[in-house]
Design a protein that fits this description.
With 395 residues, the chain is α/β, with parallel strands linked by helices. The protein has 12 helices and 14 strands. The protein folds into 2 domains: 59 residues, DNA polymerase, domain 1 (Orthogonal Bundle), CATH 1.10.150; 273 residues, TIM Barrel.
């Protein structure tokens, strides 16, 4: 099947011309895809019926298959998509009272960065997503919003994976968000754990896209423990790269700080952060930890959060508490995938136990017959996971 969302206009024209369709048909199909954002070929009403039927047989509107979906009491929607090779990725739609509709999308299946408190980091890295797989996550939300008379207003690359580890595909997806979905550059945010060479490269792109940096600690010793990437590029190198981004774009940098009770939420750490960011055009988003099963820490108490922000304010660093959304549906990065995989493992164990009981019964009745031994394979839906990434390969 041909994924039409993976075709450029020239490629779409070539495809339809090879089907002996007039050249203008490509413009019609393109308009249905990106202006009307229809969900099926039958809705492409100005196309002749034979063409619509052929499209249904030989083409597809996207490559992502919905594996699971959960909706929070606050309106947040979290989706788990299955890719053609069986990999699973997550996307989230967050709805706000001011009519903002923000899609949080993934750039990789898994993640190689190894951040200790992140559910995706705990599951390891499987593969990079293609630019089409990244883009389609936002497109699907835009398509659904269009159907109910709303529009996707913002996109953040804060889902599974490190966008700058998959730099080319992520930037290509950014450009398609702007050109094909009409999302303004200033309404797109790319988040990174701090791949310094890529921050500098991003600054040179000439885009007005926002940069967010996952910081979480203000000293190298503390950040080395939470984010292994810091062992390759120190805080000094990271902050210097952020200054370069501000100089090149004129835009401020957002720093993400996950507050972990008793770990990085003390006034002393707020003081160290204020000194680290002094003179940098920036803003700090403070986020109480979204707990995961693979990390022992918990979210900071409200009083500690307020004190942390107050200390930053004394040093001229603006900070706000980001409202945690979708807490009741595990909307944090990687949590739905982890839950689904955990459920599969439990089901597989139950199936194995049931099979063993049946086999035992057969052996009692027919000793010469033996059943197949369950080997624990879950069907190959998750690729082999690499333990890490060679940061020296990132130039």
């Amino acid at each position: 099947m041909i994924d039409l969302y993976g075709l450029t206009m020239n490629e779409l024209e070539a495809l339809l011309e090879s089907w002996d369709e007039p050249r203008f048909r490509a413009r019609q199909v393109w308009s249905w895809l990106y202006d009307s954002r229809v969900r099926n070929f039958d809705d492409m009403r100005n196309l002749p019926l034979p063409l619509r039927e052929r499209l249904k047989k030989e083409a597809a509107l996207g490559s992502l298959e919905l594996e699971a979906e959960e909706t929070s009491i606050d309106g947040t929607i979290k989706r788990l998509y299955r890719l053609p090779d069986g990999q699973l990725i997550e996307s989230v739609l967050m709805e706000y009272d001011d009519e903002r509709r923000t899609a949080c999308i993934s750039s990789q299946a898994g993640c190689a960065m190894g951040c200790v408190f992140c559910a995706t980091g705990q599951m390891g890295f499987s593969r990079h997503l293609t630019s089409d797989e990244i883009f389609e996550q936002a497109l699907y939300f835009a398509r659904d919003l269009e159907a109910r008379g709303e529009r996707l207003s913002n996109v953040v690359f804060m889902g599974m994976g490190e966008p700058f580890h998959n730099y080319d595909a992520s930037i290509e997806a950014v450009r398609r968000l702007m050109s094909d979905l009409g999302i303004g550059a200033r309404h797109i945010t790319v988040s990174t754990v701090g791949l310094v060479p890529m921050i500098r490269r991003f600054a040179d792109e000439g885009l007005q896209v926002k940069l967010a940096v996952s910081l979480h600690a203000a000293t190298d010793s503390e950040r080395d423990t939470l984010l292994p990437v810091n062992r390759r590029w120190s805080l000094k190198e990271l902050v210097n790269a952020c200054h370069y981004y501000v100089d090149m774009t004129g835009r401020r940098v957002s720093f993400e700080w996950t507050l972990i009770q008793g770990e990085n939420d003390t006034p002393e750490q707020a003081l160290a952060l204020g000194r680290l960011l002094h003179g940098l055009k920036c803003h700090v988003n403070v986020i109480p930890l979204n707990p995961t099963t693979g990390y022992h820490g918990g979210p900071s108490a409200a009083g500690r959060v307020e004190t942390f922000i107050a200390v930053l304010a004394e040093h001229g660093i603006p900070a706000t508490v980001r409202v945690r959304r979708g807490i009741d549906i595990d909307a944090g990065c990687g949590q739905l995938k982890s839950k689904v995989l955990r459920r599969r493992r439990e089901q597989a164990k139950m199936g194995a136990a049931a099979a063993a009981d049946v086999e035992l019964g057969l052996e009692d009745a027919l000793p010469e017959q033996a059943g197949d031994e369950f080997d624990g394979d879950l069907g190959g839906s998750v690729a082999d996971i690499e333990d890490g990434v060679d940061f020296d390969d990132i130039q």
